[in-house]
Amino acid sequence: MAIRGSLTEASLPDVLQLLAMGRKTGCLGLTFANNFGYIYFNDGSISHASIVNRGLGTEEAVYLLFTWTQGTFNFEPGATPDEEVQLHCIDPQSLLLEGARRVDEWALIAKKIPTFDIVYAMDRHKMMEIDRGLTAEEERLVPLIDGQRDVSAIIAESRLGEFVTAKTLYGLLTTGYVIRIGVSTRSRAPARADDKATEHRNLGVAFYKTGMYEEAQREFRRVDTLRENDPEACFYLGLVALRQQQWAAAAHAFERYVSEQHSSRPSVFVNLAYAYEQMGELERARTAMADALSHGGRGDPLVQTNAAAMAVAAHDYETADAALASARTLWGTRRPPPAWFHYAGLAAAMVNDLDRAIALLGEAVQVYPGYAVLWNNLAVAYEARGDFDEALRTVERGLIEDATLPQLHRNFADSLQRDGRFDEAREAYRRAHSLDAL
User: Fold this and answer.
1) pLDDT tens digit string along 307-346?
2) What residues form DSSP beta bridges with 42?
3) Helix (H), strand (E) at residue 10
4) Structural contact between residues 102 and 66, judged by C-beta atoms closer than 8 angstroms
5) Do residues 84 and 137 share a domain?
6) 110: how many CB neighbours lie within 10 A of its CB?
7) Coil vs helix vs strand at 264
């Protein structure tokens, strides 16, 4: 379940402790003014954090996010970082004390350094009057405080990080070694449309990954305005429309992408096929899926799985079975995702191979025990084979793992009724009905 809230009502430290105690996995997105940051969790530990358009490491990003006392947060369960980022395993509790200290220090620093576009210079006469010696951090900063670089440039070139640089500069200002010259002319120069488009695109991607779809849509529309025919903006506008179940808008975005690009990646055609399918345009959906396969999708296990899902919807179970077998071969030693097991078990059952369906779904619930639909499918397969006791045990285990699927309660009720346990069956039907109403 996604969690949303305001940082004025729940502070970031409180939210971090809540996610850590709940051993949550997913992405916490935070917005403040025009800034966006995110913190990824894996089983309650912080695995990665960043602030969009800021080159900060994980811990530095979290410390800076602690200073955001206004804005909103949104937790998207199950979201994971991109494969190329460096992952960590940090206990949020270990950051809270240092984070609180830095928040207090940032409040003092901000009084002397309110923005990072200020230009400072060294006061050499004052340094000679007050000869107290320089720390290692000050030694690194002094050559960079030349009356031309602004604070942002000093941070980038010193490589000390925002906090250490700002704290060191604060110390030099307090001593009187540094004087303010003015504001960087670079900051007053109008940003190029291309630079603005890149910033909005980065924000849009971050919003999308954390489930903030309206915000993502807003940013990609800005990109579309600033940079004509931007392929990434077009692609993500289609993805956002899919998430919002706006099938016609999604189809239009992907059609536009295909028409404006000389070559298209298979995922564009897969998403276009899904949009067509939801609109009831099945022939166009099949054509788009064929395009996905012909544009490199035959060698992509996810595309093959999506092709199988479409074949299942069309009751073409033999084609689905073949596509799923191809997908598993392509994954090699890697574990297929839950969707593959779902369709593989269903296709095997529909071609009357119940033993294989049970074997596949039995494997699935071992590696993905938190997916209620897999337990439900396994119970149905046992029931179809006549193993009613095993079906009941499977449903009971599924409810222990995840009790949010109405159909699982309904099947549980059917099994209880078959066993003559009518009062318990009635209660299970009531729970199913309550979940349906949510």
Assistant:
1) 999 999 999 999 999 999 999 999 999 999 999 999 999 9
2) 45
3) none
4) yes
5) no
6) 13
7) coil
